[in-house]
Structures are given as structure tokens and as C-alpha cells.
Fold this protein.
Amino acid sequence: MKKQRIFSVEFKRQVVEDFLSGENGAAQLCRKYNICSSLLYHWKDQYSRGRFDNEPTREGAMRDKIEKLERLVGKLTLENEVLKRGLQNSLSQSQRNGKSSSYGDALASPSGGGAKS
């Protein structure tokens, strides 16, 4: 198994900026610096998001924001499902015990609130 190489932020930024300048192609840079093309493109993506102490590009900043919002939506969806299951379990347990629940009554009949047509 190969020992993992560690590259400095300055080195990564230099390679990506060299690539973005257009003077050298990806294959040429990969041979020159002895890196694989997937690593070069990964660094390019990180560079666009401002990970190398540089100003992020508009596209990179938007991608970061989208990913953050998608994680938030996932978290809230999960919390919502857990709360729904907890409420359903609570309602079914109270029905088995023969107790009436104000939550169950509120869910079973319309509250009269909300938009009116």
C-alpha cells in the first residue's frame, strides 16, 4: 500500500492556478507534478469553493450554499418523521388504554384555522 502524500495548500493553489491559466493541459500538469487527474479536478473544485485561502467563485459559493441547505432539509425531514412517529405511537397507546386525547381529536377533525375559500 502506498504511503499517502500530503500536499500544502500553497502547492495545491499553485497547481490549480497553473491549470486555470490555460498554459498547460491537465495531462501535462499531472505528469509534471506526479498527480492523478481526478486529484487535479478535485483540487479545482475545492479552489472554486475558496478552500485554498482564496476568494471563492460565485459558482463555488452557490454550490456550498445549496449543499448546506440540502443538509438542513434532510435534518428537518428526519426530525419531522421522528415527531410524527412519536405522535402516532402516543395516540395509538392512549387509544389502547381507552383514553381520549386532545391531540387525536385535533388531528381527526379540522381546526377551522388556515386559509378559507
In short: The chain has two domains: 7-56, 58-99. Residues 7-56 form one domain.
